[in-house]
């Protein structure tokens, strides 16, 4: 709960999605499992399991695929596009390895012929672009590099956007890939929603750590 003048703004975590260790959870419920596969195969199996139809998925790097899949699962049946204007939905993400997973792949292509299709994904915030293009989100967005998930930092960033009325809703969290090490933990934050988990650093961290 945050006070701005005489206005009290309540913010809640109205949805969450985590993908790690070969398992997909939404709102703490396991939806899909395919452990023991390589990351590319696992990501493809998620795409196929949920019967997504988005040909651009196949061109994405692993970081973008991971974040895109988590956002699709998070937002399914959330009614976000119907509830908010495109400019009212913000995206705030973080990770530890930036776009290093794809950067290393791009370096390998330089030895022969540099690949423009790989170069396109040598920025971590491209995953935000993929999510926004898919959903026509046009709000504020930012991508931060941190050694580990900092729930207090994410809380402050999102709270500022929403308390200053720069955003009515926000997708936030963590999307990180390096080789076969990966984790996505995305949250949907909305205002004035009843019967939902309060938006706090503690609750962000609890969801993030719950499937470790």
CATH superfamily: Thiolase/Chalcone synthase
Helix/strand order? EEEEEHHHEHHHEHEEEH
Supply the CATH class: Alpha Beta
The amount of beta strand, in percent, is: 25-35%
Assigned CATH architecture? 3-Layer(aba) Sandwich
According to DSSP, the number of beta strands is 10
Mean pLDDT equals 90
First CA to last CA: what distance? Answer: 28 Å
Q: Shape, please?
A: globular
Q: Unreliable stretches, pLDDT < 50, 5 or more residues?
A: 1-6
Integer tally of domains = 1
Query: What about the largest sheet?
Result: 8 strands, mixed
The helix-and-strand class reads: alpha+beta
Query: CATH topology, what is it called?
Result: Peroxisomal Thiolase, Chain A, domain 1
Helix fraction by DSSP (H/I, runs of at least 4):
25-40%
**What is the overall number of helices?**
8
**Computed CA radius of gyration, to the nearest angstrom:** 17 Å
Please write out the topology.
Blueprint: E1 2-4, E2 7-9, E3 11-20, E4 23-26, E5 29-33, H1 39-49, H2 62-75, H3 80-83, E6 89-95, H4 100-110, H5 116-119, H6 126-135, E7 141-145, H7 151-163, E8 169-178, E9 181-191, E10 197-198, H8 201-210
Parallel strand pairs: 6-7, 6-8
Antiparallel strand pairs: 1-2, 3-4, 3-9, 3-10, 4-5, 8-9
């Amino acid at each position: 709960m945050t006070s701005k003048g005489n206005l009290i703004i309540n913010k809640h975590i109205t949805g969450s999605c985590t993908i790690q260790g070969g398992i997909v959870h939404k709102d703490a419920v396991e939806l899909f499992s395919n452990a023991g596969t390589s990351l590319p195969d696992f990501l493809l199996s998620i795409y196929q399991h949920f019967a997504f139809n988005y040909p651009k998925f196949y061109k994405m790097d692993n970081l973008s695929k991971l974040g895109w899949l988590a956002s699709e699962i998070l937002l399914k049946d959330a009614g976000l596009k119907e509830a908010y204007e495109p400019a009212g939905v913000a995206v705030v993400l973080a990770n530890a390895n930036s776009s290093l997973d794809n950067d290393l792949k791009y370096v390998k292509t330089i030895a022969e012929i540099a690949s423009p299709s790989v170069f396109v994904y040598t920025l971590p915030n491209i995953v935000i672009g993929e999510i926004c293009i898919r959903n026509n989100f046009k709000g504020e967005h930012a991508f931060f590099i941190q050694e580990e998930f900092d729930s207090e930092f994410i809380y402050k960033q999102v709270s500022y956007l929403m308390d200053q009325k720069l955003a009515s809703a926000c997708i936030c969290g963590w999307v990180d890939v390096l080789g076969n090490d990966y984790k996505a933990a995305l949250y949907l934050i909305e205002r004035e929603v009843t019967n939902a988990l309060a938006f706090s650093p503690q609750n962000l961290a609890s969801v993030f750590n719950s499937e470790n």
